[in-house]
Known about the structure:
This protein has helices spanning 11-24, 35-39, 43-50, 61-69, 87-94, 103-111, 135-146, 170-180, 192-197, 334-340, 345-351, and strands at 6-9, 29-33, 55-58, 76-78, 97-100, 118-124, 151-158, 187-188, 205-208, 233-245, 250-251, 257-258, 263-268, 285-288, 291-296, 304-307, 319-325, 331-332, 358-360. It is α/β, with parallel strands linked by helices. The strands form three sheets. An eight-stranded parallel beta sheet has the order 8-7-6-5-4-3-2-9. Strands 10-13-16-15-14-17 form a six-stranded antiparallel barrel. β6, α7 and β7 form a beta-alpha-beta unit. α7 packs across α8 (170-180). The protein is elongated and about 75 Å long. The structure holds pyridoxal-5'-phosphate. Pyridoxal-5'-phosphate binds at residues 33, 79, 159, 191-193, 207-210, 217.
Amino acid sequence: xxxxxxxxxxxxxxxxxxxxxxxxxxxxxxxxxxxxxxxxxxxxxxxxxxxxxxxxxxxxxxxxxxxxxxxxxxxxxxxxxxxxxxxxxxxxxxxxxxxxxxxxxxxxxxxxxxxxxxxxxxxxxxxxxxxxxxxxxxxxxxxxxxxxxxxxxxxxxxxxxxxxxxxxxxxxxxxxxxxxxxxxxxxxxxxxxxxxxxxxxxxxxxxxxxxxxxxxxxxxxxxxxxxxxxxxxxxxxxxxxxxxxxxxxxxxxxxxxxxxxxxxxxxxxxxxxxxxxxxxxxxxxxxxxxxxxxxxxxxxxxxxxxxxxxxxxxxxxxxxxxxxxxxxxxxxxxxxxxxxxxxxxxxxxxxxxxxxxxxxx
Length: 361
Ligand SMILES: Cc1ncc(COP(=O)(O)O)c(C=O)c1O
């Protein structure tokens, strides 16, 4: 029998979350962001749930090819554009729209031989200081692109650094609007946090990533339930053993947890080699038979331990929910587990390892 760990992808949740994005910005078109193999969920597995999107945004040409292989004929946007000149050949062949964020990419386009001009998204660095032309350099980049026969339509884009937090987006929106005021073309500004928290930003296209997968971009200020998002991934396993401890007994490597009295614990077939974060300390939430419990001791490679006090009926074989949907619809948000590990839901969903079998619910 295989190890009982399994990840489950929920297409109904993906469709629900995408509908939430639409309801939030009904006048905008929606990119479903599926980079990093759909944030670890698997492009092929999320495709049905997200197919009502107006387009898919990602980074890897190989992932774009996988989308075309699924017979997706609509827009695909390469969020970082070409990494080398020959990428443009595939853009021509697969009709991929691509971001242009530096002058080298404009040079490559100028030398690219194509019969069909490309749709490009010219990216402004409005304050994130990652990719893009500064506001001062933006206009001349636009003019260069506009003069190229290889370029069809130019859309304008920027990305927010603080849409999820206190600093907000106003300074970046102002920089973007000032520098683009009289330039034609569609605009793409908002990511999940921006479209949830700053829904009135003027934008023709939004880029919904994390919210599509049911994680709150601004956790812990808001939980996924606050935004009415549903988990698109469940990581579940089973108890494979139990132990009865006495006061003074310790659990796991480094004896990081000491029982203060009699305590029954369960051993779960899940460890950091499955992608569960080793940084989760005792007290990380976990469901056993749908009942909320807490982990004890250090996470090891293949196992972790859980305090079974809230669920005395638990036995080897009992279902354990590491995150996502419990057996009777209870929800353990991935964001809570991520917070216990000092990270964010994004990282956990991307980190589930290859040895974990994944099914579509
Ligand atoms: C350029 C760009 N747009 C959109 C997104 C989606 O962001 P989120 O997952 O926070 O919605 C990302 C993700 O990092 C991105 O890099």
